[in-house]
Hints:
Blueprint (H helix, E strand, L loop, with lengths): L1 H8 L9 H14 L12 H8 L3 H14 L2 E4 L3 E4 L5 H12 L5 H22 L2 H20 L4 H17 L4 H24 L4 H15 L3 H18 L2
Antiparallel strand pairs: 1-2
Helix pairs in contact: 2-4, 3-4, 5-9, 6-9, 6-11, 7-8, 7-10, 8-9, 10-11
Amino acid sequence: MARERAETSLFTNKKVRSAVEITIETIRDLLISRQLKPGDKLPSEIELSENLQISRGSIREAMKILASYGIINIRRGDGTYIAKEITDGLFDHLFLQMILTDIDKKRLFELRELIEMGMVKLVIENASDDDLSNIRFVHEKMVRAYNSGNCSINNLAELDKSFHIAIADATKNLLIKKIYGFTLDLYTPSIITSVSRGGRGEYSVQHHELILEGLEERNSEKAIQAIKNSIEKWYILID
């Protein structure tokens, strides 16, 4: 009988959730099921406390966490609302978790390749001529800075990033733009390194021109190959 009880105990749920976690998970699940939608007003602190049978202190703490994530907006004297758009708060927390994770160079390469090659396909499908003109404009800013010969490495690296952000904008997908903008911050040190080692931006200018040509021609195969070559060169330079 004792052995039977021991075996049964292996399948018990040992996870203990705090009141704050329960509150956050409840709101998360309601958002996933679309029972809560952007712009909806949440019940008052008292109502949430009574409905969830959780102390008002825990409800208040959960609201602070959700607000820091950008999930809710707390309007003093009005109430608490589900946010209507994605904010940087959510990605700031994810970014901190990622930089605390030991991510090796190979995985960074795989992530960048996956996102940027996918963005190229969407740009060719969705971008307007004005979007492509904007990418060309951003590219030419870096060309002028490179040709001047007196632009700092850090400024050249920022112009390099701006080119890729312009491509993300042209996908017409807000989620991709937000996620890519967030992940690009992970690459900032390596982009600075690659610009420095790649002829003070020479490699970036050359590869960006090829990527842009593929996009302007709406030639998916050409643009994707140019992206692939660019990322492979970056990978070599940061080794």
